[in-house]
Design goal:
The chain is mostly helical and 114 residues long. Helices cover 76% and strands 0% of the residues. The protein is built from 6 helices and no strands. It has helices at residues 7-26, 31-36, 38-51, 59-67, 71-81, 86-112. α1 runs antiparallel to α3 (38-51). The protein starts with 6 loop residues before the first helix and ends with a helix. 10% of the residues are buried.
């Protein structure tokens, strides 16, 4: 007897189908339209990847996704309206990378001056 799929698995499959349909539609666009959609492609893929993690969503959350028409679009649009900013995270990452380079160059200069 086949094991019944969990609600979380079913939610993932729904979002995966929506993503596949979205990508198929994008592939029919002009190169310029595809470039303009790059942000949406990346973040919808990021949303989809969250569903690939076992236990990321409980049954109540999975049911909500299953009931939501165009769940991937809904989640993406909510992301666009979210008060947080990817730029803040990116800025922190860039600042940390630059500080790491400063430390690297400082150590390199110290080594070279010996």
């Amino acid at each position: 007897m086949a094991k019944r799929k969990s609600l979380e698995d079913r939610a993932y499959e729904k979002v995966q189908r929506e993503f596949d349909k979205f990508i198929a539609d994008i592939k029919t666009k002009t190169p310029n339209e595809i470039v303009n959609a790059a942000y949406e492609i990346v973040y919808k893929e990021e949303i989809l990847s969250m569903f690939e993690i076992d236990g990321a969503f409980n049954d109540k959350q999975s049911v909500a996704i299953l009931k939501t028409k165009n769940a991937l679009d809904y989640l993406y649009n909510e992301w666009l309206d979210y008060d947080g900013s990817v730029h803040d995270t990116l800025r922190d990452s860039v600042n940390l990378a630059i500080e790491n380079q400063i430390d690297y160059f400082k150590k390199q200069e110290e080594r070279d001056s010996r």
